[in-house]
Amino acid sequence: MALRVAILASGNGTNFEALTKAFQAGNIPGQEVLLFANHHDAPVLARAKRLGVPAECFTVKECGSKEAYEQRLLKLLKKYQVDFILLAGYLRIVGPAILAAYPEKIINLHPALLPKYPGLDSIERAYRAGEKYTGVTVHFIDQELDHGPVIAQEKVVINPDDTLETLTERVHETEHRLFPKAVSQVLAAELAKEKQK
User: Where do the annotations place (6R)-10-formyltetrahydrofolate binding (predicted)?
Assistant: First the structure.
C-alpha cells in the first residue's frame, strides 16, 4: 500500500521541488499525487508542470469565503485519496475542517527553531536579533500557528560575517535536506504501523 501525499504551496516552490525529486528518486516511501497552490501566479505551478506532478489551483476569493475554500480543498484532497499533506511554503492557516480530517497527517516546514520565531520573516527576525544560530523545524501541525509535535530540527549557525542573503541561502539548503528526510521517516513509520494491523 503506497501512502498518497499532497503538497500545498503558495510561492516559489524550491521545497516542493526538493520533495518531488526525493519522491521520484524513491527516497520517500510514498506517492506524490498532487500539488495544490492557492495563487495562480505562484512559480511552484510551473515547477509542478516541469516535474510532471498533477497541479490544482484556486483562491479564497474565487470560493467566496474561507469556509467555502476549505471545503473545496477538502473535496479535492478526498478526490485524490490523499493520506498525508505536506506544507511547503503554504502561506495560509489550515482551517478546522482539514485539521479534523487529517489529524497528525499534516506536516509543516518552518525556517526557525520553534518555538522561537513563529510566523513570517523568521530568518530575518533571528538575524536582526543578533542570535548566534537559527535553524529549521519539521513538525505536525495543530490549531496554533507554527505549533505541534516536532518531527525534526536542525541548527544553522549565524556567522559574524553572514548577510541576511547568505544566512537565508544556508537555511534553505538545510530545509531542502531535512524536509524530505523527516517526511521519509514519518511515512516509513506509518507504513510499519499499517503492516501491523
Answer: 66, 91-94, 108
- DSSP 3-state assignment of 86? strand
3-state secondary structure of 31: strand
The average confidence (pLDDT) of the chain is 96
pLDDT digits (tens, 9 = 90+) for 26-75: 999 999 999 999 999 999 999 999 999 999 999 999 999 999 999 999 99
Residue type, 142: D
Q: Is the pTM of this model over 0.90?
A: yes
Catalytic residue among 110, 139, 172, 176: 110
Known binding residue 78? Answer is no
Q: Residue 108, annotated ligand binder?
A: yes
Residue 166, annotated ligand binder?
no
Is 110 a residue of the active site?
Answer: yes
The mean per-residue pLDDT over the stretch 2-23 comes to 97
What CATH code is carried by the domain that includes residue 186? 3.40.50.170
> Domain count of the chain?
1
The reply to whether omega before 118 is within 30° of 0 (cis) is no
CA–CA distance, 111 with 122 (Å, rounded to integer): 6
DSSP 132: S
Distance CA 166, CA 143 (A): 33
Domain range for 33? 4-196
Q: For 80, phi and psi rounded to 5 degrees? A: -85, 5
Query: Grid coordinates representing 18?
Result: 526538493
